[in-house]
């Protein structure tokens, strides 16, 4: 796309440097990119999910006609600046993009990035085109801050440092607070702080890092609740040889036990609940930094020494495998700690002469020097899909050059929260280019996510992106100079470049698409090595894979970051309000690529829309099922499938990958040990695991086992039902009245039973007498009651109406059912708890708070029922069953994969958005709300 004016004669002397020549990618000379689009006016109205009141309204906003309602809503509410209702308020995407891009272009002109004014204009137009066409996006702080009167903060990722002094610890608290106030997150390694097993200079015993974590956690929680942006996001890292590592590992697991106890005692411990603030350490992700020495000791079942922080001497020896199991057990219980592989991280470090990499940002994708920051940008890969199986390599290369140029310019004008971060970032100029929509691209081209072909394409794209990024960095070094720290790290930086290039040579291609990607990547790495040896590099880091939460929705991406598709069915917002359920657009593209005819595609899509999966879809061949595997649902990708994909792209990233490996609730501690161990073997830099339903605060529902479903279907086919006879209730019958509240909406339910047990009548009161809602509920109640009297089992109604989703939905005042996806969901869960025996409820995944507490403790909930307990103990004695030593649930008691919205195949543990109440979806190691764009910490 570009070249320096001086070409091959460019020298490093500042006086001879000349700016870059820019070539057009998408735009036409003499035509402004905005003029090629159809723009339309829309109204953005966001309502409160509890009572329907309007909490945001801006009418007449302007967007291109191809932007979805969701993307336009998110940009309007999140990124438009100025007070709503004032002339200063932005109302058009043009204004937003102009505000940001004008700063980039002006700074580039002033600092010698462009050879001529014409090159600056080309840069300006190409950047605007790419942004308004959703080809890529900067990270959120750019949209928040650039071009405004506030601080020009462009970075989303920060790494801090703390030494073993009280002054340093208090400074750490202050620096985190400043970063959180700006809506960003930070990470820190506390391993320099001496352990609680060491002495102070005064002779007393040190407090240890875990104790100081309490103060930092309280600070983060306070800023989260009082800030105007999103919740604080932070990472705390501790080295595996720290004497307090066992206490650190178990910190959050112990707090999770406390949460369960308080929940079962009736306290509000849901996410955002009023009582959750009494629990500590909930505002950080924790990770243990392990060394190759430790992992080899685990592999050999050997011993490992824990070292004093000041002297470095071994003060305690432990069994490495036991410590490793403690990590896996804690992650099994509460998803923390994650793991970071120290030697792998530092083996790929471009600036080791300046210092080691000790920590990461909250989502673990940014790994570099202490007191540094990184600004991010992500490419929408689906914009480069050509036909059914082509990837526009040339445009991808040119766009990557454009983005790297823009990102480097941003460091020149950016503001940073502390002087130390300013100094380090200006000296090393760390960038984080990445991508989104990989999962959608693979599906659309007929590649399974967990397949050799899928991994080859992902590796090729990532290698090409990073190769171009560093080649462009070398060109920028010729134009405006290498980064300040390059001279002392030149040999190490070039060594890492050769490692990237060597890894590229190991890619094994399988079809035309990945062959083209690999050939282009090979050329880019060759040019990168030559130019880098001559000019040096402008940036110490260039690439990583971020979660792309809000910006992924802004670009209308079906999948975020490196993630596969979450589900085949999603909800699409409509102009004027409301939503509709649609099958993801990538599904028809994939079917066409696989050779299906239009009428076959239509039939398969209709089947998916009804069932949410492809199993038994008409005409779909078994060998094609894997193409439609998703992160959740009937054919969920295995944990090792996710790890293998991460391993395929990791050698081509300067940083790491923001991704949580989800495992089903049935996963064992041994399963988590294997994932952590294989992550080390496969060369990952960082890894986090989340086991479904391991944390309190999210709704719990257990799907029926496939065996049970199959048996029921067989029974339904074979049982002959005679003409039904209505069994009326006597005039006097036992009844219970339940007052309930779902998301603030109140109601009453009267349930009458037969004298010899069995529910026979239900009446519901919702809304005012005479209202439409009250009339509909009366009719619904009569229909349910008559069906029960004609012999329809209650469990049939429970199975049909639980997990039904519509507003109002959210928190309830029932300690046994803390969250409900609708009024119907709550009502039939309550009826099941009151009128169905434990075995039937267990099949339906409906448990009381006490039963869930026993499950969490690894015990059988059937022990709560006296008769069943006697039978269970008798059986256990006759079989001489011994309880396992580990707290993992027994196979009989361990629920299968949790599903609340089984049709959408979404994780049951995803929290409700605290802003709008919509169920959030995973985005890397965070969650993002598709309704309003809010995130749980990622940008």
From TrEMBL:
Q: What Gene Ontology terms for biological process does this UniProt record contain? A: DNA biosynthetic process
Boundaries of every Ribonucleotide reductase large subunit C-terminal domain copy: 155-690
- SUPFAM superfamilies in UniProt: PFL-like glycyl radical enzymes
Source organism superkingdom: Bacteria
Q: Which cofactor names does the annotation list?
A: adenosylcob(III)alamin
InterPro entries in alphabetical order: RdRp_reductase_class-2, RNR_2_N, RNR_lg_C, RNR_NrdJ/NrdZ, TSCPD_dom
Reply yes or no: does the keyword ATP-binding apply: no
What the entry lists under Pfam families is as follows: Ribonuc_red_2_N, Ribonuc_red_lgC, TSCPD
Q: Which UniProt keywords apply?
A: Cobalamin, Cobalt, Disulfide bond, DNA synthesis, Nucleotide-binding, Oxidoreductase
Q: What role does this protein play?
A: Catalyzes the reduction of ribonucleotides to deoxyribonucleotides. May function to provide a pool of deoxyribonucleotide precursors for DNA repair during oxygen limitation and/or for immediate growth after restoration of oxygen.
PANTHER family for the chain = RIBONUCLEOSIDE-DIPHOSPHATE REDUCTASE, VITAMIN B12-DEPENDENT RIBONUCLEOTIDE REDUCTASE
Protein name as it appears in the record? Vitamin B12-dependent ribonucleotide reductase
Q: Which organism is it from?
A: Actinomadura craniellae
């Amino acid at each position: 796309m570009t070249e320096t004016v001086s070409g091959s004669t460019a020298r490093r002397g500042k006086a001879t440097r000349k700016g870059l020549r820019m070539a057009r990618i998408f735009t036409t000379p003499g035509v402004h990119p905005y003029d090629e689009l159809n723009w339309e006016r829309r109204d953005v109205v966001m309502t409160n999910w509890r009572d329907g009141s309007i909490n945001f309204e801006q009418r007449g906003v302007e967007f291109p006609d191809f932007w979805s309602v969701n993307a336009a809503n998110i940009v309007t509410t999140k990124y438009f600046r100025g007070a709503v209702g004032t002339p200063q308020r932005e109302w058009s995407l043009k204004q937003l993009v102009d505000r940001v891009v004008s700063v980039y272009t002006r700074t580039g002109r002033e600092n010698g990035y462009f050879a001529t004014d014409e090159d600056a204009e080309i840069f300006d137009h190409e950047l605007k085109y790419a942004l308004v066409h959703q080809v890529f996006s900067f990270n959120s702080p750019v949209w928040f801050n650039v071009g405004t009167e506030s601080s020009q903060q462009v970075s989303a990722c920060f790494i801090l440092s703390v030494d073993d002094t009280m002054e340093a610890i208090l400074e750490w608290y202050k620096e985190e607070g400043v970063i959180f106030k700006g809506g960003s997150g930070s990470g820190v390694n506390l391993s320099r702080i001496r352990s609680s097993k060491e002495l102070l200079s005064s002779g007393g015993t040190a407090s240890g890092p875990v104790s100081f974590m309490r103060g930092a956690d309280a600070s983060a929680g306070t800023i989260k609740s009082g800030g105007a942006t999103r919740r604080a996001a932070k990472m705390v890292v501790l080295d595996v040889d720290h004497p307090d590592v066992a206490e650190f590992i178990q910190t959050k697991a112990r707090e999770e036990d406390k949460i369960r106890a308080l929940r079962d005692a009736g306290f509000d411990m849901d996410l955002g609940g009023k009582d959750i603030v009494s629990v500590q350490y909930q505002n950080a992700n924790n990770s243990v930094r392990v060394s190759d020495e430790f992992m080899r000791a685990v592999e050999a079942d050997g011993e490992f020494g824990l070292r004093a922080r000041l002297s470095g001497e071994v003060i305690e020896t432990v069994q490495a495998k036991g410590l490793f199991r403690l990590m896996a057990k804690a992650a099994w219980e509460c998803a923390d700690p994650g793991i970071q592989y120290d030697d792998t991280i530092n083996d790929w470090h471009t600036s080791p002469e300046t210092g080691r990499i000790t920590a990461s940002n909250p989502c673990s994708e940014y790994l570099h020097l202490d007191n540094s920051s990184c600004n991010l940008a992500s490419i929408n890969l689906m914009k480069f899909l050509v036909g059914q199986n082509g990837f526009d390599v040339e445009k991808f290369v040119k766009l990557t050059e454009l983005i790297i140029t823009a990102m480097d310019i941003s460091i020149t004008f950016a503001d940073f929260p502390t002087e130390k971060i300013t100094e380090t970032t200006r000296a090393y100029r760390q960038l984080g280019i990445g991508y989104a929509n990989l999962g959608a691209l693979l599906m659309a081209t007929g590649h399974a996510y967990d397949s050799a072909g899928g991994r080859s394409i992902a590796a090729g794209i990532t290698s090409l992106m990073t190769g171009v990024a560093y080649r462009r960095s070398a060109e920028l070094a010729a134009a405006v100079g290498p980064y300040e720290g390059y001279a002392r790290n030149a040999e190490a930086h070039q060594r890492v470049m050769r490692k990237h290039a060597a890894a590229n040579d190991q890619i094994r291609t399988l079809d035309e698409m990945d062959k083209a990607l690999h050939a282009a990547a090979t050329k880019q790495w060759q040019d990168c090595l030559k130019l880098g040896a001559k000019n040096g590099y402008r940036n110490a880091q260039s690439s990583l894979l971020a979660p792309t939460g809000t910006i992924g929705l802004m670009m209308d991406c079906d999948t975020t970051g490196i993630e596969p598709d979450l589900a085949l069915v999603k909800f699409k917002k409509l102009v004027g309000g409301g939503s509709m359920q649609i099958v993801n657009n990538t599904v028809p593209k994939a079917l066409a690529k696989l050779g299906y005819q239009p009428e076959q595609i239509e039939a398969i899509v209709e089947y998916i829309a009804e069932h949410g999966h492809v199993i038994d879809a008409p005409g779909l061949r078994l060998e094609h099922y894997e193409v439609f595997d998703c992160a959740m649902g009937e054919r969920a990708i295995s944990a090792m499938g996710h790890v293998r994909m991460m391993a395929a792209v990791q050698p081509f990233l300067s940083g790491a990958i923001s991704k949580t490996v989800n495992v089903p609730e049935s996963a064992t501690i041994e399963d988590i040990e294997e994932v952590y161990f294989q992550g080390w073997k496969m060369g990952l830099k960082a890894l986090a695991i989340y086991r479904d339903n391991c944390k309190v605060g999210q709704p719990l529902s257990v799907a029926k086992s496939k065996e049970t479903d199959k048996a029921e279907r067989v029974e339904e086919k074979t049982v002959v039902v005679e003409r039904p006879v209505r069994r009326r209730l006597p005039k006097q019958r036992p009844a219970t009245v339940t007052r309930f509240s779902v998301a603030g909406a109140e109601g009453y339910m009267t349930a009458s039973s037969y004298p010899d047990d069995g529910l026979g009548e239900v009446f519901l009161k919702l809304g005012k007498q005479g209202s439409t809602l009250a009339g509909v509920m009366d009719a619904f109640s009569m229909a349910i009651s008559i069906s029960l009297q004609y012999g329809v089992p209650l469990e049939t109604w429970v199975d049909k109406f639980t997990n039904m989703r519509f507003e109002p939905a959210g928190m309830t005042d029932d300690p046994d059912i803390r969250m409900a996806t609708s009024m119907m969901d709550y009502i039939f869960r309550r009826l099941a708890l009151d009128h169905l025996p434990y075995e039937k409820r267990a099949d339906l995944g409906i448990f009381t708070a006490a039963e869930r507490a026993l499950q969490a403790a690894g015990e059988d909930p059937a022990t709560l029922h006296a008769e069943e307990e006697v039978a269970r103990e008798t059986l256990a004695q006759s079989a001489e069953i011994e309880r396992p030593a580990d707290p993992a649930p027994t196979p009989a008691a361990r629920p299968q994969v949790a599903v609340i919205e089984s049709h959408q195949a979404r994780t049951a543990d995803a929290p409700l958005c605290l802003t709008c109440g919509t169920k959030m979806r995973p985005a890397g190691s965070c969650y993002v709300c598709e309704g309003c764009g809010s995130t749980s910490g990622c940008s």
